[in-house]
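Regression test case RT-17, inverse folding.

Input:
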């Protein structure tokens, strides 16, 4: 039996939050119904995550120097090992939580590399009664931006939803989405892949100075194995 690993990023500073509770109950129910799934919940409040400094080293050299100063490299590694990624955030003033935004800022270069291709994604937004649509779409967009194929985006409203019913309903939806899914691509991901591949394929390396912010990105997109990929799906399978 092949194990499938789910890694969930939870952006709540409150360890007793509804977001933490719903995420745990949902993943635990998924595992209880299918033992081929294992999961890990990463509560961002348990990690030291520093702010992005906008130094652009990730674009120039392909790594973040702040990774040596905090725990972000640990989280990045766990996500790389996942088959399925969840992003979960409460609504804070009609947006994701501050700690979630700090987390996303550290993924800047991945939004240019699509280097989480080959993974499937879901999101969870929790709210009392409003702001959920903006947060839901933002979480989905961030998954797409790093190359994750988003399958569904769950919203839990404390004003109207029962946790037990929510868990049972969305566990069924989770399995149905996985069952009906084919491949790691969609129209958005194919479009982004072709845009990056074409853009960097048109740039002559000789015209790039050492101070250009896209040196690393140019080298990434001009790797032989990527240039030979005819689609994002092929790219995702090879990247996986």
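Golden output:
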């Amino acid at each position: 039996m092949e194990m499938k690993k789910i890694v969930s990023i939870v952006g709540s500073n409150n360890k007793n939050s509804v977001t933490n509770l719903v995420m745990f109950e949902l993943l635990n129910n998924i595992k209880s119904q299918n033992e081929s799934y294992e999961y890990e919940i990463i509560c961002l409040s348990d990690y030291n995550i520093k702010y992005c400094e906008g130094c652009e080293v990730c674009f120039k050299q392909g790594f973040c120097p702040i990774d040596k100063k905090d725990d972000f490299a640990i989280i990045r590694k766990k996500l790389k090992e996942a088959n399925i990624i969840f992003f979960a955030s409460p609504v804070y003033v009609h947006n994701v939580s501050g700690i979630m935004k700090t987390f996303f800022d550290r993924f800047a270069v991945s939004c240019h590399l699509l280097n989480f291709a080959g993974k499937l994604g879901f999101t969870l937004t929790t709210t009392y009664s409003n702001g959920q649509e903006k947060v839901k779409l933002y979480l989905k967009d961030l998954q797409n931006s790093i190359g994750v194929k988003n399958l569904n985006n769950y919203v839990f409203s404390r004003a109207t939803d029962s946790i037990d019913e929510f868990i049972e309903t969305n566990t069924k939806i989770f399995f149905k989405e996985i069952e009906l899914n084919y491949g790691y691509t969609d129209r958005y991901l194919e479009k982004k892949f072709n845009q990056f591949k074409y853009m960097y394929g048109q740039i002559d390396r000789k015209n790039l100075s050492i101070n250009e912010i896209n040196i690393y990105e140019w080298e990434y997109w001009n790797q032989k194995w990527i240039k030979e990929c005819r689609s994002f799906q092929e790219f995702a399978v090879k990247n996986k």
